[in-house]
Amino acid sequence: MANFVTADEAVKLVKSFDKIYLQGSTSIPEVLVEALTRRAGELKGVEVYSGFAVGAKEAPYCKSEYKESLYPISLFIANSVRGAINRGEGQCIPGFLGEIPALFRDGLIPLDVTFLNVSRPNAEGYCSYGVSADLAVSAVECSKIVIAQVNKQMPFSYGDALIHIDQLAACVEVDEPLVALPIAVPDEKDSKIGGYIAEQIPDGATLQIGVGGIPNAVLSALTNHKNLGLHTEAMTDGVVPLIQSGVINNSQKVIMPGKSVASLALGSERLYKFMDYNEDVIIKDVAWTNYPFRISQNPKVMAINSALEIDLTGQICADSIGTRMFSGVGGQHDFMYGGSLSEGGKTFIALTSTTNKGQSKIKPVLTPGAGVVTTRAQAQYIVTEHGIAYLRGKDLAQRAKALIAIADPSAREELERAACERFGYSFLRIK
Q1: Which of 255, 332, 374, 415 counts the most CB atoms within 10 A of its CB?
Q2: What are phi and psi of 411, to 5 degrees?
Q3: 320, 322, 324: which is closest to 88 by C-alpha?
Q4: Spans of the chain below 70 pLDDT
């Protein structure tokens, strides 16, 4: 029988020095987190692990006053914990997202407790993790205790993320909306980038696509494509009209044909309603979705990812702004590698040519402290609003020439000087 209690009673199962995992995406179990934070004065040395987790606000346990009691450790830095980490009151663990479940399964991070935010049970008594299988599947598997919010507003999704209600040590009944992300409307630059990428995508391709204005611009430009598939890390609102119209029908995929596959979902209430009891949408453990050799079995994988900056040789930084940690390695490498091994596959790094402050994102060298998430050996298509640079098979001087051509015009003279100084004759000889 399910053990329904209050949130304050449920979190009494947590002890000092426990390691806790919090479910992520837009489904952070906020009621349990707030109750845990109320216990901060009774606890010491509790490590609170999270992955890609979008909060409505900064996590309450991240306040400086709680740092001796509740210490945040991020496996992919999101808005709810970024402040604490950059104050030195928390830490992050780098890793390819598809390989992070092995940190739990191999015992490198021995978990004591997992907090979930799950759907109401179905007729057989199974609750769904809804929008977040990603790291939660392995965390539950490896935890001694699982505590859950049973949430009237969590969609029921199919796949790996199911747990019988009797397996929960404590349940808290809630009726809390998930975080709803505004649909990012592409601006003129995003739309140009989206158009360039869409032109490179053939019919029958399998898509991996991220979050934001540029991915939405790509999806908007695919309405006349045929027989596309979806095997991605994150599912967003932008794919819903393509699935409903039959543009994405998953008919050409080798892995789970006929099904749209993701590890997590985040978006608006429309997306969450679309997912609810939809047997054509499968939410899987990120170790499964992001395994490069599984990804590569699908035909024509189109892996579309973003970056914060890139240097003239094709080194791609996507996790930090200089030394300041911003996000994480995530699944970029998983899909860049898997996509490159796919028959007919292509991998894209999409970014506007300048920051909001007008600084070039294409740089002679990366900002000191910037992390290389994708190496220059893996870079294929780099896309800005000024065009596409194809780097595969090009030497360093040729790469510099191609990247300068898609940089902001105001930055090109400086980049040319840097390339001449660095590569000399081998750069000057390129017409």
Answers
A1: 332
A2: -100, -10
A3: 324
A4: 1
Angle between helices 409-423 and 396-405 in degrees, nearest 10 = 170
pTM (global) more than 0.90: yes
* CATH tag, 188-428: 3.40.1080.20
Strands (E), 284-328: 301-306, 309-311, 316-317, 320-321, 324-325
Same fold, 7-174 and 188-428: yes
**DSSP per-residue letters across 155-224:** ---EES-EEEGGG-SEEEEE--PPPPPPP----HHHHHHHHHHHHHPPTT-EEEE-SSHHHHHHHHTTTT
Measured CA to CA, the distance from residue 74 to residue 72 in angstroms comes to 6
Position 155, amino acid:
P
* Residues annotated as catalytic (active site), given as ranges: 233
Residues 320-330: pLDDT tens digits? Answer: 999 999 899 99
For 16, 42, 240, the CA distances from 31, given in Å and listed in that order, are 20, 18, 29
CATH code, 7-174: 3.40.1080.10
pLDDT of res. 210: 82
Burial class (CB in 10 A: 0-12, 13-18, 19+), 393: exposed
Length of the chain equals 431
Q: What is the pLDDT of residue 98?
A: 96
Q: Classify the phi-psi angles of 278: left when phi > 0, otherwise alpha if psi is within -120 to 50, otherwise beta.
A: beta
Q: What is the maximal distance between C-alpha atoms in the chain?
A: 76
Q: Alpha-carbon distance 132 to 130, whole Å?
A: 6
Cα(366)–Cα(364) distance, rounded to whole angstroms? Answer: 7
